[in-house]
Specification:
Blueprint lengths: L1 H8 L1 H39 L5 H33 L5 E7 L10 E7 L5 E8 L4 E8 L10 H13 L2
Antiparallel strand pairs: 1-2, 2-3, 3-4
């Protein structure tokens, strides 16, 4: 152990360590030069591939465009999901039945119209025409049924509306 400590204190050891550090420094400078040359070649290579423009810049712009498109796509997807939710409450099923309410009138001028959404909620309208007057009655529908008495004509319009979704 003492021999090692004395050797470390000697001039030979100091010269050896200095030489080793100098060698490491020279290798470091060589690596810096090689890295600079490699960077220059890389930039030239990228310009050649990009037809005179830097390929990295082109790729960066494309990645930016893709990110914007993904963001827009997410917005559109949310919008479509909202539309899907909203459309469930829109009129989707329509049934109409025309009939002659009174024998003394000529054509089938009276009508019954059923309008329902996806859940079969809506309204049935009954328009009764006579020579003296016309009346329209509305009855709310919940799941295709009404709390009010439904006539045969209204029932037929509801049936047609339910079958119109097929």
């Amino acid at each position: 152990m003492e021999n090692i400590l004395e050797f470390m204190k000697s001039d030979i050891f100091l010269i050896g360590i200095t030489g080793f550090c100098l060698l490491i420094f020279i290798l470091y400078l060589i690596n810096i030069a090689r890295l600079g040359k490699l960077r220059k070649e890389y930039k030239e290579f990228m310009k050649k591939i990009g037809n005179g423009t830097n390929l990295e810049e082109i790729l960066s712009k494309h990645v930016e465009k893709i990110n914007k498109a993904v963001s827009k796509n997410e917005e559109l997807e949310k919008f479509c999901n909202n539309l899907d939710t909203d459309i469930k409450h829109c009129i989707q099923k329509i049934g109409i039945y025309r009939y002659n309410a009174y024998k003394d009138t000529g054509s089938d001028l009276s009508f019954t119209l059923a309008l329902m959404d996806e859940n079969n909620d809506g309204v049935v309208l009954n328009g009764i025409y006579s020579r003296e007057m016309s009346n329209i009655y509305a009855k709310p529908l919940v799941k295709g049924k009404s709390e009010y008495k439904i006539t045969e004509e209204e029932s037929e319009a509801i049936k047609r509306a339910l079958n119109s979704s097929n």
